[in-house]
UniProtKB/TrEMBL annotation:
Role summary: Mediates the production of the second messenger molecules diacylglycerol (DAG) and inositol 1,4,5-trisphosphate (IP3). Plays an important role in the regulation of intracellular signaling cascades. Becomes activated in response to ligand-mediated activation of receptor-type tyrosine kinases, such as PDGFRA, PDGFRB, EGFR, FGFR1, FGFR2, FGFR3 and FGFR4. Plays a role in actin reorganization and cell migration.
Gene Ontology CC: one annotated term: cytoplasm
Descriptive protein name: 1-phosphatidylinositol 4,5-bisphosphate phosphodiesterase gamma
InterPro entries per the UniProt record, alphabetical: C2_dom, C2_domain_sf, EF-hand-dom_pair, EF-hand_PLCG1, EF_Hand_1_Ca_BS, EF_hand_dom, HisK_dim/P_dom, PH-like_dom_sf
MF term (GO), any: phosphorelay sensor kinase activity
Pfam families named in the record: C2, EF_HAND_1_PLCG, PI-PLC-X, PI-PLC-Y, SH2, SH3_1
Keywords linked to the UniProt accession: Acetylation, Calcium, Cell projection, Hydrolase, Lipid degradation, Lipid metabolism, Lipoprotein, Metal-binding, Phosphoprotein, Repeat, SH2 domain, SH3 domain, Transducer, Ubl conjugation
Catalytic activity: a 1,2-diacyl-sn-glycero-3-phospho-(1D-myo-inositol-4,5-bisphosphate) + H2O = 1D-myo-inositol 1,4,5-trisphosphate + a 1,2-diacyl-sn-glycerol + H(+); a 1,2-diacyl-sn-glycero-3-phospho-(1D-myo-inositol) + H2O = 1D-myo-inositol 1-phosphate + a 1,2-diacyl-sn-glycerol + H(+)
Enzyme Commission number, as recorded: 3.1.4.11
Organism for this UniProt entry: Amphilophus citrinellus
Domain spans labelled PI-PLC Y-box: 890-1007
Gene Ontology annotations of biological process type: phosphatidylinositol metabolic process; phosphatidylinositol-mediated signaling; phospholipid catabolic process; positive regulation of epithelial cell migration; release of sequestered calcium ion into cytosol
């Protein structure tokens, strides 16, 4: 997402060691918390150089929080954050020059750390030091970054700050960093190699890490004949995976002033849709920070959705929705502050105006007042016949708004046909409640009333402000007196009589057999002192017990070990002694790891000790709700199963007990079944399904149905028919083609992009069968299609305002409403909507609850009014033309971006004015960006601007595919920047080409009149072939509790004729350092000027579903060849710490090979048909292969560049290019400055080419 290098007005230069030393010692500052429940307090803030973190604490023994410096995106002076606004009285007393804010995070919505120092000098010291540290941290060589990461892991385990960790700590850490230990013998052998026994110092730990990393991936070097000589092999392997060896060459994408001197219409311009939103389109927060974030990400076209507000000044929000409102004037000040921090090139404000003429005049006044000279108010050249260039418009803000026709004063008439698909045209919308038929709770749903339908969504969440979300964090904490009950360390009443002490000792002894550290503990109810508790812990090889006293103070129970330190809950007491040492005459010790409860699951309502699979299915068939579940004991030793409903089907998953741990799938480890269920009540177990309804006989009597839902099984079958899960047949489905596919054999399908393939049978091996174009059950590649949801309302999704959120609808013309005077089932404000029978829809009855009487009355009134006037209103609105009044003061500010209705007949004529532009929803743009019409649309975009925006039904703020629009020359392809999806990742990749300036010159071929963006035969560029192998990965992110089973999808994204994707095999249980078997992917690319290479790393979960882990997307023209690292990013395009792939990539000029290869292939085909192919066939075949090899060698020799890598790493010289295949070439690789604390090292590396290696 880019790095903000300019921070708070300070330039980063050499940093005085005195400043860094002062920051390491720390200063006291006032912290304004993000949680509303915590008042501002003074804390000591320090820099940790060895881990590159900011930490703060009340006292040195207890660190309260930390921030990775690599995650800081902006430093901002003053009190401009919500943290200060929560406590205005305290903030008012502070001098603004003594305050600053750190904005940090790896998502679109950044978190804030707001602090107040004692002086302006102290603020300057922090800002100066942090600016230097931010840049230095980003530029640090790979070994330093690895060392910092290792120290962070070590310090998390070293809770006692003794400088050592145990073997048990290491064993617990490895699954957390995605590494599965095969067995304890393996780990013990590795520990012996690093000369560590029961405890490890940091050097031991770091060496263990290097051993694990190298041993797993040294086979890569052997397989590809990289033969190393000295011990620096580990360092060299680290270099290969590092950013310094990146596959992307940033030197090919600088901002060159001469490239910015073409007309605006010849650029792709980074553009945002509904810029103010931080989430979905109907209930998320509108935020000034969203504008700041987009502008700093290089966005150059932002949207302001203006509605009449108080004090005759507009407000900005998504009209007629639950999105929050922000002030127009605040937005202008934010734009001015951040517009030109990242890029000096022009910013376009796309104004969506719903305001009165009075408020429009005020808008114009404040545009001029706030922006001043930055605002463009007159043409750059009044005699020009084309748009000005970005260079001419540097540091200018342009207004895109409808403009009055000359000679008119107030109003313009523009056709705008009424569309119910736009939520802004709804009569009413908001949150109402539907009763859950299973547990009879009321769940929130989003309702939209239009002139002829009431639409309602799937279960959703209340709209919340950020403050309310933070308050909820506190609400999740249970009552102080009960909070300990859910903790792993609390065992309740152990045994009977005086057996509790013996049971506790046995549990601790068994748990500590593996070498647990002192401080391992549990808490139990005291048998001697009723109402008190006992702390049992492990120290010096034996179990000790300590009474936790309780007493009553002011009606509340207090807990303590010593009279002078009292706590208001047992939970807080234990938390304190886990951070602060427990001191007595004989010893001093912190509480460490808790001992989990044994067999706590047996008393839970979801557990069944004697239930078969068939019986479980019978029970779940009576509860037709996703999220219904139970856990049962299987007949096999130490084996359980969780049976649940998801996506309307019943599924089972095995749980295996291994020692004291419970394993779900192959690597998700839990201390108990209770932990497992608790985790998946909060996190998805299968796709989006969380465990929700525990099922037993009592709950069945209360919420179950009498009919069995046989459709929930994988096929309709009798109750007694039973098959194993992995033998269940897969239901057939429908898929949609992502790309064109031309059959290569007679038994394959041929289809165009967007084709629907029916009756699909998913086979193994990447090829499926299906029906299309009259052909039945022929083969096609699975990676060319995507599955279409089999929802009965799928067609309605496209036409309803709720899009894919749609759950159902009611016809307004035939409905009537009845109010329940006494409410229903704990809800006071309930009404029922009855819909009479129509030929196309059955009779419906819907009980709906509102939050208040006022809300209920409003909804009932609007529904009744709509039902009475439905026919007349629909007829009137379908013929309506919207008459819009525009203030002349605002109209005069519009110079170049004048929105007008699109008129295809004007294209290429004198009537087409370069100052006019048109906007298109994606659905309309898709009709132009197609074969047959794309060339015409491109012709329009050569002279005029066009803006594309997402259709109104994308309430989840998802994005459309921008590639066809870019290919047709559309400049302003507006996307939801807050959404971390593939379109936004492609957008980030495209604007790499402009060096983050927000402007990318379109290729010259797009100015060629003969060029058709959808016809590869009109291309006048040289095609290329990319040959690529994925060799390995490091530090893949973890998704949930399981160790990931990764695979990599490699995709070419571009025109339909170039798009293609392949994937590697799955590596089991290794996300730390997986290695893939040799498999070469070959991509033929016809238009490399507009093609992206995209790597997506997925994990295959226990249900064989792919889950996103990481991605990296690059323009093909920025690629470097050879053995290269692919630094991985998260879904928001923020770099992941140390995560990377290692690939081998070759790029060949395919056009040179094609004629000769085609001629030889034709000769071979003729010989085969003539029947005289023996000698001639073999001769031609050998000639073909020799020619291809020779051609590849010549192209490689031509394209090979000697790259002088960073002076921190490798300088290599290739002496001879003519003997690549015959000789062993030795590189003298000088590797030095690997770590600022190490002396220079030399390493001699021999590399055997197969056929070539480029570094």
């Amino acid at each position: 997402a880019g790095d903000d290098s300019v921070q708070a007005g300070f330039k980063a230069g050499p940093c005085c060691p005195r400043i860094l030393h002062s920051l390491e010692i720390g200063t006291v500052m006032t912290l304004f918390y993000q949680k509303k429940s915590q008042r501002p307090e003074r804390r000591t803030f320090q820099i940790r150089q060895d881990t590159r973190q900011i930490v703060w604490s009340r006292n040195p023994d207890k660190m309260e929080g930390e921030i990775d410096i690599r995650e800081i995106r902006e430093l901002r002076l003053g009190k401009g954050s919500r943290d200060f606004e929560r406590y205005p009285e305290e903030a008012r007393k502070l001098d603004g020059t003594h305050c600053f804010i750190m904005l940090y995070g790896l998502e679109f919505r950044l978190r804030t750390l707001s602090v107040a120092a004692f002086s302006e000098e102290e603020v300057n010291m922090w800002i100066t030091g942090l600016n230097w540290l931010m840049i230095d941290t980003q530029r640090a060589p790979a070994p330093q970054q690895t060392d910092r990461w290792l120290r962070k892991q070590f310090e998390v385990m070293d809770r006692s700050h003794e400088g050592s960790i145990t073997v048990k700590d290491v064993k617990a850490l490895l699954p957390q960093i995605n590494y599965r230990v095969p067995n304890m013998r393996f780990l013990k052998d590795k520990l012996q190699e690093v000369e560590a026994r029961s405890e490890l110092s940091y050097p031991n730990f770091a060496q263990l890490y290097r051993t694990l990393m190298f041993d797993a991936q040294k086979n890569v070097s052997a397989r590809y004949k990289l033969i190393y000589i000295y011990k620096a092999v580990e360092e060299f392997l680290t270099f290969l995976f590092s950013k310094e060896n990146s596959v992307c060459d940033p030197r090919l994408s600088p901002v060159v002033p001469d490239d910015m001197k073409k007309p605006l219409s010849q650029y792709w311009i980074s553009s945002s849709h509904n810029t103010y939103l931080t989430g979905d389109q109907f209930s998320s927060e509108s935020s000034l920070e969203a504008y700041a974030r987009c502008l700093r990400m290089g966005c150059r076209c932002i949207e302001l959705d203006c509605w009449d507000g108080p004090d005759d000044l507009p407000i900005i929000y998504h009209g007629h929705t639950l999105t929050s409102k922000i002030k127009f004037l605040d937005v202008l000040h934010t734009i001015k502050e951040h517009a030109f921090v990242t890029s000096e090139y022009p910013v376009i404000l796309s104004i969506e105006d719903h305001c009165s003429v009075v408020q429009q005049r005020n808008m114009a006044t404040y545009f001029k007042k706030v922006f001043g000279d930055l605002l463009l108010t007159k043409p750059v050249d009044s005699n020009a016949e084309e748009l000005p260039s970005p260079y001419q418009l540097r540091r200018k803000i342009l207004i895109k708004h409808k403009k009055l026709v000359e000679g008119t004063v107030y109003e313009e008439v523009a056709s705008a046909s009424y569309s119910e698909n736009d939520i802004s045209n709804s009569l009413k919308n908001g949150i109402l409640y539907l009763e859950d038929p299973i547990d009879h709770t009321w769940t929130p749903h989003y309702f939209v009333l239009t002139s002829n339908k009431i639409y309602y969504s799937e279960e959703t969440s209340h709209y919340q402000t950020a403050d309310e979300e933070e308050d909820d964090e506190g609400k999740e904490e249970c009552n102080n007196n009960e909070q300990h009950c859910t903790e792993r360390w609390f065992h309740g009443k152990l045994g009977g009589g005086r057996d509790g002490r013996q049971v506790a000792e046995k549990l601790l002894q068994e748990y500590c057999e593996g070498g647990a550290k002192d401080g391992t503990f549990l808490v139990r109810e005291s048998e001697t002192f009723v109402g008190d508790y006992t702390l049992s812990f492990w120290r010096s090889g034996r179990v000790q017990h300590c009474r936790i006293h309780s007493r009553q103070e002011s009606g509340s129970t207090r807990f303590y070990l010593t009279d002078n330190l009292v706590f208001d809950s047992l939970y807080r007491l234990i938390c304190h002694y886990r951070d602060t040492p427990l001191r007595c005459n004989e010893f001093e010790m912190r509480l460490g790891n808790p001992v989990p409860q044994p067999n706590a699951h047996e008393s839970r309502e979801w557990y069944h000790s004697n239930l078969s699979r068939v019986q479980a299915e019978h029970m779940l068939m009576r509860v037709p709700r996703d999220g219904a579940f139970l856990v049962r004991k299987r007949s096999e030793h130490n084996s359980y199963a969780i049976s649940f409903r998801a996506e309307g089907k019943i599924k089972h998953c095995r749980i295996q007990q291994e020692g004291r741990l419970f394993m779900l799938g192959s690597s998700a480890e839990f201390e108990s079944l209770v932990d497992l269920v608790s985790y998946y009540e909060k996190h998805p177990l299968y796709r989006k399904m969380r465990l929700r309804y525990p099922i037993n006989e009592d709950t069945l009597d209360r919420m179950g149905t009498t009919e069995l839902d046989y459709g929930a099984l994988y096929e309709v079958r009798t109750p007694h028919f039973y098959v194993e899960a992995n033998k269940m047949p897969t239901a057939r489905c429908t898929v949609k083609a992502l790309y064109d596919y031309r059959a290569q054999r007679e038994d394959e399908l041929c289809f165009p992009k967007q084709a629907l393939i029916l009756n699909v049978d998913k086979q193994e091996g990447g090829w499926w069968r299906g029906d299309y174009g009259g052909k039945k059950q022929l083969w096609f590649p699975a990676n060319y299609v995507e599955e279409v949801p089999s929802s009965p309302t799928r067609e309605l999704d496209e036409s309803s305002p709720l899009g894919t959120f749609l759950k159902g609808f009611i016809d307004v013309p035939t409905c009537h409403v009845v109010v329940h005077k006494d409410g229903k089932n704990s809800r006071s404000f309930v009404f029922t909507i009855h819909s009479q029978h129509l030929s196309s829809h059955p009779v419906q009855t819907l009980d709906v609850a509102a939050d208040s009487l006022e809300d209920l009355t409003s909804w009932v009134s609007k529904i009744r009014e709509a039902a009475q006037n439905a026919d007349a209103r629909v007829s009137e609105e379908k013929q309506m033309e919207r008459r819009k009044k525009i203030a002349v003061e605002l109209s005069d500010l519009v110079v170049y971006c004048r929105p007008v209705p699109f008129n295809e007949d004007k294209i290429g004529t004198e009537r087409a004015c370069y100052r006019d532009m048109s906007s298109f929803p994606e659905t309309k743009a898709e009709k132009f960006a197609t074969r047959g019409r794309g060339k015409r649309f491109l012709q329009y975009n050569r002279r005029q601007l066009s803006r594309i925006y997402p259709r109104g039904q994308r309430l989840d703020s998802s994005n459309y595919d921008p590639l066809p629009m870019w290919l047709c020359g559309s400049q302003l392809v507006a996307l939801n920047f807050q959404t971390p999806d593939k379109p936004m990742q492609l957008n980030q990749a495209l604007f790499m080409l402009g060096g983050g300036s927000g402007y990318v010159p379109q290729p010259d071929i797009m100015r060629d009149d003969a060029f058709d963006p959808f016809d590869k035969d009109t291309l006048h560029v040289e095609p290329i072939t990319i040959q690529l192998q994925v060799l390995g990965a490091r530090h893949l992110p973890k998704n949930g509790r399981s160790i990931v089973c990764p695979f990599v999808e490699v995709e070419i994204c571009g025109a339909d004729y170039d798009s293609c994707k392949c994937k590697t095999d799955v590596v089991a249980d290794n996300g730390l350092n997986p290695v893939w078997v040799q498999k070469q992917f070959v991509f033929d690319i016809h238009n490399p000027t507009f093609t992206f290479l995209r790597f997506t790393v997925y994990e295959e979960d226990m249900f064989s579903d792919p889950n996103f882990l990481a991605q990296a997307t690059y323009p093909v023209r920025l690629l470097k060849t050879g053995y290269r690292s692919v630094p991985l990013k998260n879904s928001y395009s923020e770099e992941l710490e140390l995560a990377s792939l290692l690939v081998h990539i070759e790029i060949v000029n395919a056009k040179v090979c094609t004629p000769l290869a085609a001629e030889l292939s034709n000769q071979i085909s003729l010989l085969e048909r003539s029947g005289s192919a023996d000698v001639s066939y073999q001769q031609s075949l050998e000639e073909l292969r020799a020619a291809q090899d020779q051609l590849s060698e010549l192209v490689e020799a031509r394209n090979r560049r000697l790259v002088a890598t960073s002076n921190f790493y490798v300088q290599s010289v290739v002496q001879t290019l003519t003997s690549l295949f015959e000789t062993l070439v030795t590189f003298n690789v000088s590797i030095y400055h690997w770590n600022s604390r190490q002396k220079n090292k030399d390493c001699r590396v021999s590399i055997s080419y197969k056929p070539t290696i480029q570094i």
